[in-house]
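User: Hi! I'm working on a homework problem where we have to compare a predicted structure to a textbook description. Could you give me the structure for the chain below?
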Amino acid sequence: MNGEQASTVRPASTLVGDDAGPGRVLLLCLLLAGGYALGALAALHATDVVSDGVKLFAPAGMTVAALVCTTPRRWPLLLGIVAATEIAIDIANGYPMSLNVGFALANVSHPLVTASVLRRWGPAEPFATPAALLRFLAVLAATGPVATALIGAGTLGLAFGEEAFRRNIVHWYLGDAWGAVLVGTALLAVLSAPPLGPRWASGARPDPAGPLERNLWLVAVALATAGAYFTGLVVLQWTVLPLVLAVALRAGLRRTGLAVLTTTAIAELAVSTGHGLAGRLGRAEALDALQGYLGVTLVCGLLLAVEAMRRSRLQVALGLAEQERLEADLLRSRRFEAIGQRAAGLAHDFNNLLGVVRNYAEHIGRDPAATPRIRDDVGQISEAAARGGDLVQRLLAMVRDQSIEPAELDLAAMAADLVELVRVPFAPHTVEVVADGEVIVFGDRLELDRMLLNLLCNARDALALSGRITVRVGRGAADGPQRLPAAVLEVCDDGAGMAPQVAARAFEPSFSTKAGATGRGWGLPSVRSIVEQHGGTVALSSRSGSGTTVTVRLPLVAGSSFDGDGSTAAVPAKPHDAALVLVVDDEIDDRRRAARLLHRLGYATVSLPDADAALAALRHGPRPDLVLSDVMMAGTDGLAFAHSMSTAAPDLPVVLMSAGADADRDELPWPLLRKPLDAADLADVLDAALAADAAPPR
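Assistant: Happy to help. Predicted structure tokens:
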């Protein structure tokens, strides 16, 4: 720090800066002169009472605080006031002029040396951390007090001989050192801290409204100190330290400094006048005990106050960080909600298009004039449309948190589908699947997809510029003593691998080695949660430089069959006694596809474009045997229409169909079919609805 820098204690430097008005400067001068005079007179009185001399010179700390709180431009004025006050007091006490000048130089040198050293080498923020405060106290005790003791004791040595120098140098040093450490630090704490100070905990109660309640802590410290030093009850002095520490923990730096100043003033008054503790122990012994006790009180109190401030700032920082994280999560959730809403509409339209493609493909495939090659091509088109509809439903379910019922599924086919989905976005990395035939498990397709996708993304992130990810699916034995048959899914990468200490923590929540915001540490924990919900286990093996393998074991379904080719089997037409189905859908292509499928199944149909037309037809036209209605329609939607049907014709079965994820089949009183319609599913649901309607009442 250079000489032009502002004061060491930055908040206090604004008290009397270079731009301060004359009124503020005059007030500071009067306070310094008055306080210095009172402190010096008290010290002289204590010296007369106690033969060993005073060991706490309060004016030294006051002057140091005054210089630190101002800019060097004001120092000559303040030091001149100190020198003039000291000389006036010495003249009033009848000291020779030679001693007066020497004492004045000694008492001016202390604040000048201390403030100069603090400005150049002291901590810029002495109350920021406990380490900075200790460094600040060390400068106060080791710089100015040494200079003033040498000059003051040297003046006495020149006047009265070497014995006077040896007898007074230690007392002079201790008096100025304690004065600077106790009074100076407390004053600077009061001047540099914010008015209310920090709180130990964010849940601290607010200050009471009244001034007495608000300063009750100061009253308690004053009463405890007065009781300890004026009554002579030594045990009471041990109540002062806990009170000061409580203030430090609760009220912050400013009020800790005020508590220390209060304790110092009352205790010094009691000892210097010979009351209480001084009368019982002897004034010299009481003064020695007082210095040590006050030093412990100050250092412990201020250290705890600084620690409280540091923790308070840390809590504020953590609170802001948590608030920013919550706001980011809220923004992200709203963004996903908007994406989900958009995806629902897109899925509806896209499924309608897929339904048209599938409808015409099946129509062409059943044309007697179609050649075998055309039928084969049309079968591929129909299969691709079916897979596209399934893919849309899965992606939509991820976005909209759609519940999906567990079912038997081929783990190998599922892995192949997902790898095909990520192959392009994972480029230039190579992703391959190695499967040992069908591996049937019972699980939730959405959750298992999410589990495998997490593993694939982790493997991709572990690769360098280009690498290989291998997904192996086969059969094996489950972990445990029974060694039951299990489906085994392995995701291997040839990346850098993990160190043993990292691999040991890989499944811990919020643990991530990814820099910045790319990882939140929830990928592998969610994988473990999904696997354990399915009754399986997951393990990770990795070595630095050898890649990583994650092995998932799930219960294997024995003796189950699975049609994994995804094709739509032909459904033979069944006679239904000319059952009439009312088809309600605002999309003309969907109405035509549904009517065509129903004709193939042996039903007669009536198609209408909206719910209002359907209700009118029910009132004036022939009564249908079943109503098949879309959910998402313009005007009156399918759910409202179904409720109206339940009121108008409670015995008329209703089946709903939807291309979106808004309707949950578990929460509806009517059967729900997903669009594009599958002939086999449509046949089963309509058969069940008509059979339930035809059953005799019990």
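For your comparison, note the following. The first helix runs from residue 22 to 49. The two ends are 97 Å apart (CA to CA). Good luck with the assignment!
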